[in-house]
Amino acid sequence: MYYKRQMRKARERYPAGHSTVLPMEFSGMKIIPISVLSDNYSYLIIDTTSSVAVVVDPADPQTVQAVIQEEGVRLEAILCTHKHWDHSGGNKWLKRIYSSCRVYGNAADNIPGLTHPLSHKDSVTVGCLHFKALFTPGHTVGHMIYLLDGRAMGAPSSLFSGDLVFLSGCGRMFEGSASTMLSSLDTVGSLNDDTLLWPGHEYAEDNLLFAAEVEPHNAVRENKYQWVLQQRGQKLCTSPSTIGEEKAYNPFLRSHCAELHLALGLRQLEEEDWNQFRARVLEELRKHKDQYNRR
Length: 295
Ligand SMILES: [Zn+2]
Description:
alpha/beta; Metallo-beta-lactamase, Chain A; seven-stranded mixed beta sheet; six-stranded mixed beta sheet; 36% helix; binds zinc ion
């Protein structure tokens, strides 16, 4: 009920979506961000040679279905990052329309309509689209992210990161300790720098403002912020960024950074190993961000 009410409210408030999006085309593949609810993104990924498609987190199923129809493609799979309604709420509705569509996710997360439970590093193939599922708990116990291999298309890879990583931010640690979240974030940090990041929410502007509080002298962050202001001034989508960019300004991927330690007033203790210390930095950072959001 709550879900339906929120969906209706968002459609009334943003009849054309909260942001204007641009599809990204590669040879043989197309990635279409879809603006849903008040700040979520679903993503439709199309193998343009065989006209089959995959959707990531189709939270507003009717809006997603309209794009599927417009593109004239067949939906073969739903990749669900986690159980929260603003990511998984449309699974069953779409599954009713596209009955052969497979629903992927992690079994620990009670994902509605789940047909194909995934574990760390499992692959999902649809047409010539090859995804690798990566287990990244912390926001929820069963959070997964999906890495689309770009090699076959001569493209960079693409990461669909759900509520793990956003442009300059990370998800709340609802169901995991800071060290669990840290190891999930390290999974992201270990990907190639040219990997495109497609997150679950449009949070760029607020996140970069917060990053300025903890790393005021970061020039890359300031440049990105100016660009984001221009984009958001016209309600344009800020995705994708790249993992290389995120590593340069996203404080949640920079728990190793001395300026951050200074800003948070933290120092590594003598008996503390480096990862324990970084987990403590991450925990403090997340606390600061939560307080910042409430201001
Ligand atoms: Zn969530």
